[in-house]
Amino acid sequence: MGCGHKDDKANLASSQIASFSHQPHQPPSTPASKEVWKKGGRMFSILLAVHLALLACTLVSSGAFEKIAVHDYDVFFLLTVMMLIVIIWIIFYLVSTSRCPDAILCKDSHAGPIWLRGGLILFAIFSLVMDVFKIGYYSSFYSCLSAIKIIYPIVQAIFVVVQTYFLWISAKDCVHVHLNVTRCGLMLTLTTNLAVWMSAVTDESVHKAHSKLKKNVTEEIFRWLLKAGLRSSSAEECNCNSQICQIFKNGYFWLYPFNIEYSLFASAMVYVMWKNVGRFIDHHSHHMHRLKFRLFRRTFFVGIVLGLIILVSGLGVLILYEVQVNSSTESSKKSQALTMYYIFNIVCLGLMSLVCIGGSVIYRFDKRDMDRHKNPTRTLDVALLMGAALGQYAISYYSIVAIVASTPRDAISALNLTYALLMIAQHTFQNIFIIEGLHRQPPKEDHKHDTHQKDLYGLTFVNINAVSLRVPDSGSILAPSTASGTEAIHPSDLVRSLTTPKKMNWRRKFLREISMFLLLSNIILWITPAFGARPQFDNDTELNFYGDSMWPAIVDICLPFGIFYRMHAVASLLEVYIMS
């Protein structure tokens, strides 16, 4: 495979590194023609990704309906081929970069933080369990199925293992060999993850619609909504009747949210790698902040306790909601469940909005500088937060229009209106708080004050006034020493070394409490819609206003973005917590 010297940019990379060794603090000079081709290489990989994404989206959306002559095994075949190509490319990447010593000249310290990679592994484990359940489900009646339906989960499991290992060890890489091949391979990997995500979201949405409408619609409409998961000519023969088959079927549907989040997490990390291809990092300005994750230090435990209360209460509300809505046919039970759900979310969203406002106020008094260095990871985090929030914004505004324009209005409509308004406010205030936190410099230890404090606290008794009495006319305690290089110390510096850390610790503690409370609250707000509690389908106001076809389509399109927003907010808040 070589080291990629045939690539027209590899020679440029080697020449730039040679200049780096002599001038470590000067950015490399890039010829204009090479910079143009860098943009051309990126554009080619983007066009490849766009065409593959459109093809996958067309097949996935067409395969969701039985009346269209595109079956789900056509979708599975395309996804299987894409995953196999990505697996081959990842192996090529790992082998080529390991054999070439100059393949990875620098690493992006901001890319692929440990909590993001840890979350990726967690979702990968659940995705593997889902694939096992899928294999068991399809194996229950393999005689009447296409072979691709059993091959697909096997290939997906291999794909998850290989990609997780690849992202764990290579997420920070700034590659400088096979640049155009690497860009295309990374874009193919990103597109494959998005295609798997689209397939999972479509499958889950159709399954939810099937579960909600199976009891209330005719067989013809039910079959129209049913995804073509089995060949129509043998649907009766392939029915899942055994108990073990039902366990496998229900199990892998319950694990779909983890697979959805895994695909999105992997897509975000692959995009950052794509941005870092051919990138040179000036380590003089792009220094690495070694921050320690200390969960139970420098905290009052208020945010953790309140967050755990919200989390446990939300789990209880979710269980009661599912039992009363899905197991009971009485309208009164359904109204009680909706009332309970809306009240809990109104309280939770109201507290989160107030806390975010308080955190933004605290940032106004934070003396830390803003981090203005180039950071593709942070840019992507901000873009994903703002973009994913649009899904929940859309649902909320559709609900507001339906509630205001509908008559008559009851208590549930008032709660729904309040819930929609608070959802918009909470997303807005939380985005402001997170973006401010991500753009702050991490806390720096003031070595000057540390030295003063060691000298100061080394004494048994300290009398600042007595120290100031011994100050010469020049106003300094110690004269500047040219031999030792020590700086002059002023009495005001000693006083400030006592008072300043307390103020800084007070602000940082509150920011940590706010971050931890928001983190736990976002977890329950992710779990609730991801695992079944979706009042948008149970509240009749929007269904009657927009119709049985338009409103479910709106929710199915926008809700996955809202679910992803919560999980991405959890990762961003964890970073804000550590940076505080």
UniProtKB/TrEMBL annotation:
The chain crosses the membrane at residues 43-63, 75-95, 115-138, 150-169, 253-274, 295-321, 341-363, 383-405, 510-531, 551-578. One of its GO terms (molecular function) is proton channel activity. It is a multi-pass membrane protein. InterPro entries: Otopetrin (IPR004878). GO terms for cellular component: plasma membrane. Belongs to the otopetrin family. This is OTOP2 protein.
